[in-house]
Amino acid sequence: MKKFAIGIDIGGTNTAIGVVDEDGNVLVKGGIxxxxxxxxxxxxxxxxxxxxxxxxxxxxxxPESEVxxxxxxxxxxxxxxGTIEYAPNLSFKGVIxxxxxxxxxxxxxxxxxxxxxxxxxxxxxxxxGGAKGMRNFVMYTLGTGVGSGVVVNGDLVYGxxxxxxxxxxxxxxxxxxxxxxxxxGHLEAYCSAPGMKRTAFELMAHYNATDSLLADKSFNELNxxxxxxxxxxxxxxxxxxxxxxxxxLGQGLADTVHHLSPEAIFLFGGPTAAGDFIFxxxxxxxxxxxxxxxxxxxKVLPSKLSAGDAAIVGASALVWKELxx
Amino acid sequence: MKKFAIGIDIGGTNTAIGVVDEDGNVLVKGGIxxxxxxxxxxxxxxxxxxxxxxxxxxxxxxPESEVxxxxxxxxxxxxxxGTIEYAPNLSFKGVIxxxxxxxxxxxxxxxxxxxxxxxxxxxxxxxxGGAKGMRNFVMYTLGTGVGSGVVVNGDLVYGxxxxxxxxxxxxxxxxxxxxxxxxxGHLEAYCSAPGMKRTAFELMAHYNATDSLLADKSFNELNxxxxxxxxxxxxxxxxxxxxxxxxxLGQGLADTVHHLSPEAIFLFGGPTAAGDFIFxxxxxxxxxxxxxxxxxxxKVLPSKLSAGDAAIVGASALVWKELxx
Lengths: 325, 325
Description:
alpha/beta; Nucleotidyltransferase, domain 5; 2 domains; homodimer
């Protein structure tokens, strides 16, 4: 009997769905639009129909199969209550009891769990990825924002209210850049992909860098991939963007180490594809900020989750994690 | 049968010892010098003799009593190994296997455990103090340095190597003040008692504050109690020291909240005796740095451990915590 879990990743515009086996292989994947109409009941119906369709196709391929449950990654996802709470980028307002609503659609599944996308990625890393066998680690996801998931003694830390692991909102620079959350100087404002773009524009302004390969791009055009491509060609601005981003990120990672003393910190997301450009200054900066007892002890590693499927795979990992309990 | 635990707090110059009951009452206390000779075997012998003497006097008072074990708080204490590792302020060099050495002296006790002093204080708060019944909280101890203890799901977080909970070394100000650990801009350099003194001297220099009540004290004379006394009298420099210390501390507490989402953060130590002078700006600053989902949710509370006995009581609490396991 082959065992499967459903992974659902709810984003602002798209909801990705996948059927995942115990080794983290995605057998079928698909998705529906995350609606802008705000009607949660309609959305849950559409979501359930899409999930059933996908299970059907997996069952055709593997007649001896069993689906054990559904794991969901969602912005502002609260594990304790199975709710999405006041997510600014979704059309569903207030507190959405998504796990209860899905349980009504799938009473046959014992394991239904929800958390935010970065927590799901951390669980994915633990169940399928580079953190297998690690009991204390932290995962940072660098993308449009910066998320994180904290694992202590083999369990994800949800904290008192279910929202722990928002390391992207530690303060790096007092009275620094505006963060999307309304506060100032947060890590996310510097180390997300848009944060890197902001750094590039600051540097071009500072040096009056008319000869930079980035100097012909508008603020809305420039992205972190272009900065990487320019760095590969030796563009001074682009190289300094990576130096500075690493310096900022390393400061934040050191704060995390001082709180939690993890075995490793995993980095996931677009900017990490730049390899040494980002890892080298990050590790240097982290080490410079650490207490002597932590120096040269903490591994900073690229995530082993494949970029395309990580969100689905991470969400599905929630099911295997629930099974352990 | 009354049950007791021994609490030992090892400081740079003095080792405090107490016999503590299940409610956190200290029945007998005393101590020996922490030696400067660096001979750990002699120290363990002296310590064991002092502990035995104290147990004898408790047994005289309570013939029907049982001592269950020994808990130790020590700088750079490693819970996992029962060791003190490279403590800069002790004369014992390298890695000291203190728990093993004490077990040889007290084979009759099942529960012997060691951690650093701030972790011990956090366990004390959980077992005897204001954190009774809380499963997720953090304790900051403000003194000569700034220590901390992190509790997640009812257990102290030791991390991968036993040294978690060094929140005093999060970076508040990039390239800021020199910290005693060698790095720059750490919280401890701003929010410890000496940190407050440094702020007072910076402010006097900035304003050329010849009329401040603090202006007649030398750098080596001034302490946080004097700053408090001056603040009570309305001294502008002293009041601004508390404002700034709270601003710095609140930034650090927000970083802690974003990592761990605790129910409460407890503050312990000399500077917290200033009450609203320190708590008000700390809470205001923390709130200003928080993500909306955390705002107005996290309690910042004074420790309920009595200042004089907290170190002994915290260390003894390790024994009751081990008993739970």
